[in-house]
């Protein structure tokens, strides 16, 4: 469906052209003064300079030209040259009717779908998920869903951190504790046990212990390095242990991400990119892109136009070891080979911005990635506690994700129980659904790049700009619909306008609600292509508010004019569908009651 805003722009473009002006002046925007009008066109102000006329004269001409247009309701020229206007209710109702019979709610599906990789997990294997992992998961999942909704082929990649010293530390620590395991017996030739020699909770304790220990014991650190080296060279026992670490850790990660309603399409690992490194290094050397600087292999990525100092992109350390950048470069080579994406979007902590700038510049300069491939770094800010510092547990430790979710669910549970009577088990189930919405909406409603304060009381409130408020609106609409349907079993409620050419009176809150619905297809394109879930949240909140005002001003169930009532029911059914679609795209769902 052509978006309302585009239809109106077309109408004004034609008017400008027919009055002898360039078409570019016909751009229409949503009014920033909804108390005065619904839409506006400011083209006369810009055209005035080119045509050397007073803006108000041009605006008056356009108004005169458009005033009998069947779409427009009121149109006025305002000093110094604004054109303010509103549209007829019939136009809106027709538009919403087409939306409501469209399974995509009026959103065009991409005609030439792109393949887009979203790199948004980045958890490190064998370390518990903590609040730092929350933001990429929540933001990335929503971006993936929105872009997919527009018809693109989106691949969400967890990009597990399974490489480097942490693996060496874990294996060395296991050997310190259980030196007699067959994994460490050089002469052992049989099969290794299929059962891992540790559980997930043991594994989660092993890593921090080993990491602490290595700080004080350089010989242990050396041992761990040695293990990594041998692991990379195919040591049988270490490889078997590494597989155990991966399996135990992945099972736990999957469970955690499932609880967050976050689902990756591929679970690629940093180690998967390692086989691409030797070929890549040869290519960079042979084509003269890489040079040796202070023993290390680097690619210069500075450009003449740079105003800031930029270090080179490090490819290999002086001892030949690879670095974080090496892995990201090789991962891009791998992604080009496997998926040929049109874009890759990285949802990563904004403190890694420089790293990605170097990597992006390096792959473009060296043509490892074709220049028309979009590489986007979406850096997110920190989730802070009420003290404005990064969120911590009460004793100052890093908060585990599970514990954070438990505390939110508990808070929501208490709110539910204080509001109404419910069986404990049912309330707990509902609290889980509502808790997830509180957490995700609390995060997503902030612009990703900004830091924000995690405020459990505010996030779980049933009022204001919160997840629970949005769910509450959905539940309320569902209950009105259920009640109506119970009393009016056979009534057709698919029509927003029962008689054609209907000119009944429409209240302001009803028109506002219709205007909000009509924005959906335009809004979702902006939110998706700008990687901006906060725009989707802002829209959901506006729509929920428009519904609440409408609901409070009209007695839907008690309405005596049956036709009007039917039309209202059709309208709120549409509102429900839009809200449900939006929260699905944000990555959470609504309970049946709350
Ligand atoms: N594992 C990394 C970390 O903990 C994040 C990975 C982000 N993605 C990437 N392609 N580098 O910092």
In the sheet with the most strands, the strands line up as: 1-2-4-3
According to CATH, the fold-level topology of the domain at 89-107 and 382-594 is Isoleucyl-tRNA Synthetase, Domain 1
CATH-defined superfamily of the domain at 89-107 and 382-594: Isoleucyl-tRNA Synthetase, Domain 1
Distance from N terminus to C terminus (CA atoms, Å) equals: 35 Å
Number of strands: 13
Description of the molecule:
This protein is an alpha/beta fold and 594 residues long. Among the domains are: 84 residues, Gyrase A, domain 2, CATH 3.30.1360.70; 232 residues, Orthogonal Bundle (Isoleucyl-tRNA Synthetase, Domain 1); 95 residues, no CATH class. It is built from 20 helices and 13 strands. The strands form 4 sheets. Strands 1-2-4-3 form a 4-stranded antiparallel sheet. A 4-stranded parallel sheet has the order 6-5-10-11, sandwiched between helices. Helix 5 links the parallel strand 5 and strand 6. The radius of gyration is 29 Å and the shape is globular. The relative contact order is 0.10. The protein binds arginine. The site of arginine has 8 residues, from strand 10. The site of arginine (ARG) has 8 residues, from strand 10.
């Amino acid at each position: 469906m052509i978006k309302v805003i585009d239809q109106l722009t077309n109408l004004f473009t034609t008017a400008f052209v027919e009055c002898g002006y360039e078409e570019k002046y016909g751009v229409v925007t949503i009014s920033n003064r909804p108390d005065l009008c619904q839409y506006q066109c400011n083209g006369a102000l810009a055209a005035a300079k080119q045509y050397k006329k007073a803006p108000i004269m041009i605006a008056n001409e356009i108004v005169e030209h458009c005033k009998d247009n069947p779409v427009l309701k009121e149109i006025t020229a305002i000093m110094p040259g604004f054109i303010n206007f509103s549209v007829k209710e019939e136009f809106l109702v027709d538009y919403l009717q087409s939306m409501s019979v469209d399974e995509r709610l009026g959103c065009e599906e991409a005609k030439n779908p792109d393949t887009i990789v979203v790199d948004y997990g980045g958890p490190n294997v064998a370390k518990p998920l903590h609040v730092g992992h929350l933001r990429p998961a929540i933001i990335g999942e929503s971006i993936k869903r929105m872009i997919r909704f527009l018809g693109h082929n989106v691949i969400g990649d967890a990009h597990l951190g399974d490489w480097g010293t942490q693996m060496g530390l874990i294996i060395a620590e296991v050997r310190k504790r259980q030196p007699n395991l067959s994994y460490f017996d050089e002469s052992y030739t049989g099969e290794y046990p299929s059962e891992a020699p540790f559980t997930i909770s043991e594994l989660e304790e092993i890593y921090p212990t080993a990491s602490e220990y290595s700080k004080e014991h350089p010989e242990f650190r050396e041992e761990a390095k040695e293990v990594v080296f041998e692991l990379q060279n195919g040591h049988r026992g270490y490889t078997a242990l590494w597989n155990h670490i991966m399996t135990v850790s992945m099972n736990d990660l999957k469970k955690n991400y499932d609880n967050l309603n976050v689902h990756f399409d591929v679970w690629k690992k940093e180690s998967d990119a390692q086989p691409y490194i030797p070929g890549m290094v040869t290519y960079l050397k042979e084509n003269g892109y890489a040079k040796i600087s202070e023993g290390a292999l680097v690619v210069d990525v500075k450009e003449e136009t740079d105003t800031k100092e930029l270090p080179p992109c490090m490819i290999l350390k002086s001892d030949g070891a690879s670095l974080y950048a090496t892995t990201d470069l090789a991962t891009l080579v791998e992604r080009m080979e496997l998926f040929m994406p049109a874009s890759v979007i990285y949802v990563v902590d904004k403190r890694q911005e420089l790293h990605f700038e170097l990597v992006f510049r390096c792959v473009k300069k060296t043509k490892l990635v074709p220049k028309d491939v979009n590489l986007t770094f979406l850096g997110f800010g920190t989730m802070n506690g009420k003290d404005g510092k990064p969120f911590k547990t009460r004793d100052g430790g890093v908060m585990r994700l599970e514990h954070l979710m438990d505390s939110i669910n508990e808070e929501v549970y208490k709110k539910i129980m204080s509001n109404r009577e419910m069986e404990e088990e049912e309330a707990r189930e509902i609290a889980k659904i509502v808790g997830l919405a509180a957490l995700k909406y609390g995060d997503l409603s902030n612009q990703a790049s900004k830091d924000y304060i995690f405020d459990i009381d505010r996030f779980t409130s049933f009022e204001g700009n919160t997840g629970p408020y949005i769910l509450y609106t959905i539940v309320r609409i569902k209950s009105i619909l259920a009640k109506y349907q119970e009393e009016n079993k056979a009534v057709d409620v698919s029509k927003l306008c029962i008689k054609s050419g209907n000119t009944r009176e429409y209240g302001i809150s009803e028109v506002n609600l219709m205007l909000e619905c009509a924005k959906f297809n335009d809004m979702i394109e902006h939110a998706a292509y700008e990687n901006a879930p906060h725009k989707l949240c802002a829209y959901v909140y506006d729509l929920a508010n428009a519904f609440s005002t409408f609901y409070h001003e009209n007695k839907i169930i008690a309405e005596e004019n049956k036709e009007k009532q039917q039309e209202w029911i059709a309208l709120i059914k549409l509102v429900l569908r839009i809200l449900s679609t939006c929260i699905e795209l944000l990555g959470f769902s609504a309970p049946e009651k709350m």
